[in-house]
## 1
Amino acid sequence: MTAIKVAIIGAGPSGCMLARMLHLGGVDVTVFEGEASPDFRGQGGTLDLHTKTGLAAMSEAGLFEEFEKHARYDGQYAAVVDKNLKYHMVRGVEDRSLGERPEIDRSRLREILINSLPTGMVRWGHRLKAIEGKTLVFGNTTASGFDLVVGADGAWSKVRQAIDPDFQPQYTGVAMTELNIPDAESTAPEIHKIVNRGSIFASNEGQRVSYQQMGDGSICIYASTVRTDPDWMDPEKCGYDTSDLESTKRALELEFKDWCPPLREALSLAQGRCIPRSLHILPIAAKWKHRPGVTLIGDAAHLMTPHAGEGVNQALEDAMLLARTIVDTVDSGNDIDDEVVGFEEAMRARVGPVQQLAYDLCQCWMFTPGAPKSVMPKVISRHVQSQAPLIMQPLLVAGVHAYFFVKYMLWP
C-alpha cells in the first residue's frame, strides 16, 4: 500500500465529489477554493442528474439518501415550444425513456457535497495563481508536498493553464443573460403555470429562452441570443449596462419583442440580479501532454455548453472514476502517473461523444433557420443516438423522423 497526498483545486461539484470519495477511501486530500465561503456567490439554476452518471456518483459516495431529500422528480417535466408558445415536444413527469433525471438546485447539490466533507478539508479563500514546479502558488501563500494535483477549477482553469497555456476555451457565438423571478406562483402566475414545476425551452431563429422552476419556488431564466463578440456585454458594444436589471429588461423586451406575451412578459417580471455570460467550449476530445503529478476533471477538462444537460453529470462521473483510480493505486502500489494517464485517455473517449452532442444541439437551437420546428427530428435523433444501442439506432432514428413528418403534416 502506497500513501498518496492529493490536492484538489476547486470546490465545485466535481471537486467536492472527488474529495468525498477519496476521503471514504482513506486518501489524504485537501481542497483549495478561491471563494471565501460556499455562499460567496450565487450558484446558478437547476440541474438534472442522470441515472448512469450523476446519480451513480451520488450513490457510490453514500449521498443518494441525502440527495433524495431535495430532489424534485416532478421537475422532470420539460417542453419545447416556439416563440408563439406552440408545443413541439413534451416530456411528462412519468416519462423514463431517458432514465431518471430528477432536478436539484445547483446550490443545494453543492451544499450536500460540502457538508459531506470533514471540517477543514476545504481551505476557503485560496485562489490559485500558478503551479511552479510542485508548489501551488495562491494569492498570499503557497502549498506543496502533493503527489497529485487535480484541476476541478472550471472553465478558466489555472491548473489547465499550467499544463498547456494554449489549451483555452473557444467562444461559441452565444450570449446569455441569467434572470430570476422570485416566488413565481404569486409574482408571475402565468409563466409559473406554463413551466409546470419543470422546464420550458422556447426557441426562435438565433434566440432561445429557458424557464426553469427552482426548489425555492422561483423561476430561473436564461435568455440566449447570437452575438459574434465574446465581449458583447461591454456597454459600448451592446448599448446598455448589463449589470443593471432595468436596463437589461428593456434590452430583452426589444430583443424578444415579437414573442408571445406570456413568454415575453416573464422577462419583465425578473427581480434582483442579472448575470451576462458568453458561452465557451473546449475542443472536443482535446488531448494534452500529460504533466506528471497533475490532471483535470469536469469543465477544466471538457467544457461544453448546457444544451445537452450533461456538464455536471460528466463532471461527477469524472470524480467517481478518478477516485477509483487513485484508491486502486494506493492499494496496488502502482505508479500514480501511469494510472492517471490511463484515466485521462478513458475520459476523453467517454466524454468526447457527449461534447459532440452538446455542440450539435447548440448548433441546432441557436444557428439553424426555422428552429425549433426545423430541428426537432435531428435533436431527438441525437438524443436517441446517445442513449440507444448501436444496432437499434437506425430503426429508432427513422421512427423519430417519421413521427415528426406525420406530426407536422397533420398539425402544421
Note: The CA atoms of residues 325 and 342 lie 9 Å apart.
## 2
Amino acid sequence: MKFNHRFVPFVLLYSLMLQAEAGTLLIRNVHIVTAHIVTANAQVSKQPVNLLIENERIREIGSQDFTAETVIDGKGQYLMPGLIDTHVHLRDVPGLMLQENDPDSAKINQEALAQIPQSYLYAGFTTLLDLANTGEAITQWNSPPLAPQAYFCSPVLIPKGYPIANMPETVQQSPDVTRHYLHDRHSHSTANMADAEQHSPANLVEAGKKEGAKCIKVFYEKGFGGKKNLPTPSEAVVRELVAAAHKHHLPVFLHGNSLESYEFGLATGVDMIVHGLWNADAKTNNTDLIKIAKQLIKARIAVQPTVQVIYGEQEIFNPDFFKQTDLQHEMPASLMQWYQSDSGQWMKEEMSGYFKSETPMTATQQYQQVKAVYKPMLDRVKTLSNELIQSKSLLVFGSDTPSGPFYAQFPGFNGRQEMNRWLDMGISLTDLFRAMTIGNARIMGLENEIGSIEKHKLANLLLLSKNPLVDVTAYDSITWVVLKGKTH
C-alpha cells in the first residue's frame, strides 16, 4: 500500500493492507540514509544497495541480489529509518468540543480518531512517545494494525498543580488521576494525602516501571492565564524521584518552559527538559541564555525546544491557516470544516481576550499583533537551541502534539511543522535527521531496535524520492512507509 499524498479512507487502507503478503520484502537499488550513533553525521550510501526484510526485521543489506515474495524497486530513491517523535499526547482530538447527544459531533470525532494514526504515518512518524499516559491506553492505541508504535511516560503529579488544576474536582479525585499523585514530604503535609507512603517517589516509579513506562515525567509549572501560583514539587523530592527512576533505568523528563524551571532542572538532575525556554523576565539577555545552555551541557541535560507550542498558539490567528494544502492530507474534511465554524473557533475567541487593542483590528492585523507578542519567546528558544546543538545529543526532537486544544497542532502536520521550525532556528538538515532517528531512539532506550538502518533492527522505514540531507521537502516525498516489515 502506497501513501500517494492524498487522504485515503481508513477502511480502504485497512483492506489494502490485508492483501499484502506476510513474507519477505526486498527493496532493491536504493540509497540508504542513516546515522548509526548519535554523535556521527548522517550519511548516504555511495552506491545503491539491496535490503532484505524478514519477520519484521532487517535481515540483510548488501550489493548481492536477494529473493523475496515482495519486491520494491528503489532506483533513484532514498531509504531512511522511520521518524520518531518523543513528545506527543494521544488521548483526544485537538480542540474538538463534543456535544452531548449530538450524532454529528460524535461522527466527526470518530472519523478524526480513525485518521490520526494515519496522519502520523503520512508525515513519516513510525514511533511515538506519549509523555503522560498509561499502559492500558497505549496498548489500545497499538492494537490497530495501521498505527505508529507508541510508548509512554508515567506522569507524577502534585495535587492541585499543573496540568490537573484546570480539570473538574471530580476528575482530580478520580483513581485514574490520584494514583499518580506524589507525596512531597519536604513541603506537603502527610495529612493532606491518604496512604502517603504509596505515593512516595520510589513507589510511583516502581508502579510506572511495572506498567511498562519508558520514562517518568514531572512538572514544574506555576501556571498561566487564569491559573497561577500553582503548587510545584520541592527540589528535594524531585532529586529523590530522579534517584529512584535511575535505579530502575528510567529517565526523568521535566515539564518546564521558564528560566526558573530550567534552574530547577539543573538543581535536581533531571535527564531532559521537555520545552524550550520561552518565559523569562525582560532583564534576561542572550548572555544569560548562553550561560544556562553551557550549564545544561555540563550537566548533560537534554532539551526539547517544542517550538510548535508557540507557533501552534500563534497560527490559530492566521486567517490563511486553512488554505495550506498539506492540511487536507492529515486532517479529515469534516473536522476541518468544523474547526472553521463559530463553534470550532472557541479557543481563538478565548485567547483573543489576551490580545486587546484600543481600536478595531482586521484578522490580519490581529495576527501580526500576536506574532509580535510571541517573537521574544521564539528568540529565546532559538538562542538556547543554537548553543545546545553543538553538543549533538542534547537537542531532542519533540513536537508536543498537541500542547493544548489547538487545531494548528494537528497530528502529523504539527511534527512536520516542527521540522521547519528547527531549520528556521538555523539547525542543519543533518542534525535534524539525526535527532528524529537515532537520537530519539537513544532517548527512549531503543537504539538497538530502531533509529538506524542496520541488520537485525526492526524494519520501520521510509522510502523517499528526495534526499532528506539536502532538502527538507524530502519528508514530503514519502512513497512507501514500511511498518514492522510491511509496506503501506
Note: The two ends are 4 Å apart (CA to CA).
